[in-house]
Amino acid sequence: METPPSSFLPLDALLNNPVFAGGIGLGGLGLAAAFARRSAIQGASLVKRRLLVDLEISKQDDSYQSILAWLSLPRPPADFITSKITRIHHLSMRTISQSSQHGPTHKQYFLQPGYGRHIIRHKNAYISVNREKQTSANLNTGEPHETITLTTLYAHRHIFEDIFAEAHHLAASAQEGKTVMYTSRGMEWTRFGDPRLKRPLSSVILDQGIKERILEDVTDFLGRKEWYVDRGIPYRRGYLLYGPPGTGKSSFIQALAGELDFSVALINLSERGMTDDKLSYLLTKLPPRSILLLEDADAAFRNRRQVDEDGYSGGTVTFSGLLNALDGVAAGEERIAFLTTNHIDRLDEALIRPGRVDMTVRIGEATRHQAGEMWNRFYGDIDEDGKGRERFLERLEALDLVTDATGTKRPKLYTSTAAIQGLFLFNKDNMEGAIDMAEGLIPRTYEPEARDPGVKVPA
Ligand SMILES: Nc1ncnc2c1ncn2[C@@H]1O[C@H](COP(=O)(O)OP(=O)(O)O)[C@@H](O)[C@H]1O
Ligand SMILES: [Mg+2]
Asked: Alpha carbon of 418 to those of 40, 370, 373, 433: distances in Å?
């Protein structure tokens, strides 16, 4: 409290001086006004401190997007006054391209609260929402930091729990039946596109028993956490899938993640700018409940130290970098990793160690069994007696693309499941067309050396 220091002034003398008295009067008014203003501000901030609660959510937080989505929900019609004050006046648009397994890509548009202040009403509480871009930026991605601050009366603070529960539920139901993909952006994992429809495991056709063997192993691992912890072993398991391109390696991992309700965290080891440091850092920060997928594992073994045609020489992962990243003490204690490669011959045996790679599986050229299963998926409903299927398989046999029915004679040529899928897609609902065009499955260039010498063709 400030008072004029009057005690030591010859007050009477001064007050009797008309000029000075006028001055002091004005000064006094000013002082009183300043005092009033200050108390008002102090009072307001006291009220604010005492009566309001803030909750700040930063964009880095997992809940940010779900809160934003929750805020965009249409609200039930309110009474007149509420509807006047709780309108969201600035909107921003978010467009999502969604490619679904069973349909064309379509775009979805979402309106979100834009930047600035909005008032909303939830249940009985009024909540002020402030969405702001900060002046600082995320050093990894270059994006400005962003926050949403929710403010409500202290008495209504429990509404926040309610909002979070609803937002969480909303996000969970939006992801139901979907698989989330993460990729690295800068030094961070970010969601790649929107969650995709789960790919059913049954839609990936591998040779007999392969899917089951891997699924069983992963499931067993997931149930054994304690076993690992008790023995002080990092709770990690690695799988290496190898074989020619277009045999369903990536599709299988995607479907497996869906089956287990995991996300996929994808790194392409041949991607530009992926360095040892970045890789090992990313592996320490895997998104929760995700399968790590390292595509093109052989990239780490190629000698790519020389300059590319366009003069680019940096940003490669080395073999020791890959091993360090996989073994790293900090590298997420819990981990399921899948590595894929088209060139098993380029990999080093050092990769096959418990925790790095525990199981190696070859996903190979299409077999008779796979061709038959794929036929069933495409033409099962129109080829009721299975005669078309038999003719198709005989044709593949005659073309020397698959084994004979007894599984004894090894084919001279090979084809891939991706090629068979292409053939069937071209001949939708037209099985005769598919049989007629089967010759197109013969690879244009036949490179015997490209084929793994150890290929096992099961019956
Ligand atoms: N075994 C398979 N079963 C079902 N679809 C397959 C199979 N192999 C390949 N495809 C299809 O071919 C395309 C390429 O497959 P992909 O999984 O990317 O092969 P890879 O990773 O082995 O190169 C995808 O559209 C996929 O659906
Ligand atoms: Mg692949």
From this structure: 73, 11, 13, 18
